[in-house]
Design goal:
This protein is of the alpha+beta class. About 50% of the residues lie in helices and about 10% in strands. It has three domains: about 90-230, no CATH class; about 240-365, no CATH class; about 370-440, Homeodomain-like (Arc Repressor Mutant, subunit A, Orthogonal Bundle). The chain is flat, with a radius of gyration of 31 Å.
């Protein structure tokens, strides 16, 4: 076999990711609020882009609410009153309390760092060895500082574990049953894992006593700092609106006016046409091309989302006519094949996008759900995973909490209703719905 060095031509076909394509993909996957923020950022880098507010203010698309008790008066509610205002942070609340105490400058510095080492739930997250070295402290001194932190409000702040958090709250409580304190101090892990029979034997108590203790412990707050976590109010703005006409026709339309409007900044027209500086002309021509690409990407985004919406109206017609219980199995690939685009395009198109329906507002990805095979021979259509989850939730809600349903029992009950599901599937759906096992759901009373 002879190998010779040389120059050879090889023809290849490659898909190159252009700047325009990249921008179109990015814009498609943005939610309404993310898109508005993106456009505002683009305006800062391109002087030809001019933004105008949405045609409609999402907060005022509805008629002002009139107080029914004062009908006929001008007593209306401004919807802006329902916009949440930023709350003070946990660090702010603790610092105010700290300022009321007599502390040396060193004490204050250590305490402030401890405060800013709390996570959003109020738990202390420090690397002790590093903290000791930084402030030249002994372990007992650090514990003293942590104890001071844990004396602040709310109770439970500064804990390093859930057990310590609960214990701190119990110490400030009134009429705490001795059994509760004993369980939290000495048997917390086993109690949390619901190994109650062993605990009942050790403590010589009945199971109903442990149930009462559990109910008492549940009154404690496992995340004492969470109420101070700042949350930015984000309004869900549906991009698609579904209307049912004459009880059988499902119509889908874009919700115009949800995003800011992009227009051309006319002030630069003369610059572009008559400015003598070639560098300025080249710069503005580049920005004009960028402006045109942006408009094209926005048009493509609207077209794609509307296509997806219309396909959902066709494939999930039963949902829009009857309600969530009638949702049908549907995959991204099915819709992608129908409108002749790649599956990833559909994935981006439904991400963070919402649809207003007669039954409420739903995220588009809600309408994509896997199929569950029916065990009834006369049923030609499969049930959706969402339908099975709804049935599962109903069974759990209606169960006898003293004898909760096992996963196998749930499988049997669903089989009776015509759903062919495995025990593993039920366990997975329970986890997705935040439902614990039958052992953890059982009550002793």
């Amino acid at each position: 076999m002879n190998l010779k060095a040389g120059l050879f031509q090889n023809q290849q076909l490659k898909l190159q990711m252009t700047q325009q394509l990249s921008q179109a993909i990015t814009i498609l996957q943005y939610s309404t609020m993310e898109l508005n923020a993106y456009l505002e950022a683009k305006q800062l880098e391109n002087p030809l882009i001019q933004l105008e507010p949405p045609k409609q203010d999402p907060l005022h698309q509805r008629e002002p609410y009139t107080n029914k008790r004062n009908a006929g008066s001008e007593n209306t509610v401004d919807w802006y009153e329902y916009v949440s205002v930023p709350k003070r942070t946990l660090a702010d609340a603790l610092s105010v309390q700290l300022n009321l105490k007599s502390l040396t400058s060193v004490d204050k510095k250590v305490m402030e760092e401890l405060i800013y080492s709390l996570d959003d739930n109020g738990y202390l997250r420090i690397e002790e060895e590093s903290f000791l070295n930084k402030y030249s402290l002994e372990m007992d001194q650090l514990e003293s500082y942590i104890n001071r932190l844990q004396e602040l409000e709310p109770a439970g702040i500064g804990a390093r574990s859930l057990q310590e958090c609960i214990s701190l709250q119990l110490k400030r409580g009134f009429d705490v049953p001795p059994l509760v304190t004993m369980i939290v101090d000495n048997h917390f892990q086993a109690f949390a894992e619901k190994k109650w029979k062993a605990i009942a034997k050790i403590l010589s108590v009945e199971m109903k006593d442990l149930q009462q203790a559990a109910d008492f412990i549940r009154e404690c707050n496992p995340r004492p700092g969470s109420k101070y976590s700042q949350q930015i109010a984000e309004y869900i703005i549906p991009e698609l609106i579904v209307n049912v006409i004459d009880g059988h026709t499902v119509a889908v339309s874009l919700n115009d006016g949800t995003t800011v409007n992009v227009t051309y900044n006319e002030e630069y027209t003369d610059f572009l046409k008559h400015h003598g500086d070639k560098e300025v002309q080249s710069y503005l021509q580049e920005k004009e091309q960028d402006f045109q690409w942006l408009l094209q990407s926005l048009r493509q985004r609207k077209q794609t989302i509307l296509k997806v919406g219309k396909m959902l109206a066709e494939k999930q017609k039963a949902f829009f006519l009857k309600g969530p219980y009638a949702i049908q199995p549907l995959t991204l690939k099915q819709v992608a094949d129908e409108i002749d685009v790649h599956e990833s395009t559909i994935s981006r198109a439904v991400k963070g996008k919402y649809m207003q329906t007669p039954f409420g507002i739903f995220e588009l990805k809600y309408f994509f759900t896997s199929a569950i095979k029916s065990v009834r021979l006369e049923d030609s259509e499969a049930a959706s995973a969402t339908t099975v989850k709804n049935e599962l939730q109903k069974l759990i809600d209606d169960e006898d909490k003293k004898k909760p349903l096992s996963d196998q029992k749930i499988v049997n009950l669903l089989m009776d209703k015509g759903y062919d599901v495995s025990r593993r599937t039920i366990a997975k759906y329970r986890d997705q719905l935040g439902i614990t096992s039958s052992t953890m759901r059982k009550r002793y009373e």
